[in-house]
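Q: Hi! Curious about what 3'-phosphate/5'-hydroxy nucleic acid ligase looks like structurally. Here's the sequence.
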Amino acid sequence: MPRLLPPAPGCRPILVWARALPPGAEKQLRHIASQPYVVEHVAAMPDLHVASGIAVGTVFATEHHVVPGALGGDLGCGVSAWRFPLTSGLPGRDVLERVLSQLAERIPVGDAVHRGRGLPLPPALESPPLSTQKLRHAWERLAPRHLATLGGGNHFLELDRDADGALWLLLHTGSRGVGAAIADHHGRVARALGEGGLPALDIHTAEGAACLADTQWACRFALANREAIAARALDVLEEALGVAADPTSVVDVHHNHVAQEEHGGRLLWVHRKGAVGLQSGQRGLIPGSMGTASYVAEGRGEPRAFRSCSHGAGRVLTRAEARARIRPAALEHVLRRVVYDKGRAAALVEEAPAAYRDITEVLEDEADLVRPLLRLTPLAVLKG
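A: Let's find out. The predicted structure is below.
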């Protein structure tokens, strides 16, 4: 059940599903709750943590404003999953190592992109009507080279097993440089022309309408990116396993976006930064960390959370803190049963399980938001 933060003058109510607020998070929640365009209340998910603009895990709504700085730079970022119904048992470590090596060869990770002109774009994404010539040029230059690339940070490709012995492919990535360019442009427009301490654009203005439209194109590219990566990964896995993924098992959710939805009998623009929107009964994904379980979950449609839930475990250490506190040897010990690139252990300490919250506590805190359906245990992980 959520708790209500003590009210403050000029602030909308703040409902928090996290058992404890990390340092600085309450200040960020109160800042967004004090903005004149926010309606109803602000909802904080259990994986809440401080970030630029507003905290990751923040959900709020407006009547007719879009807030570029409340969506993050990786517009449309999300998680996808596919299930492989195995009949001959899980693959051994040797097979997993070979598969991970093949995935790393076929899918650029980190800062890597496709060389030259890149890949052909899906026809629907070849020439989107973006709002400025500069953004159109950025799309033409970046989209073909960034399509089917994973990116860095907490992005991943992961092979998991469920309790029934099936294998799952999980994928986490977003809109890459395309989304970053769009987010940066409209953030600058909002800072110049917007309303409020975290500047918002009225959607009835040309600037606000352009922001919404361009953001939706970024989300479309993010989905296309996941689909393009999945096509390559599924080919590798189907060849290695001798079985195709179950097409009815596919789940895809995004967690940095704004969407028009009906809440309380009226249409609102719901902003989610690091939060997933799930209708009652809709399946979603809540990943843990590099060495801990992830979950397929079902939304409960809780209206007080704007039908939202956490997008993962949530960081408890910044990347700098993780590098300072976690030794590569400690990471190797924690991941001794997981196949990964041990040669990158010094860099991957930023993504160590100790840098994240306990996913079981996160699920306990949001028991009225989602119902866990399947626990997925990691077998192999490719990080950006």
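A: A fun detail: The chain has a mean pLDDT of 96.
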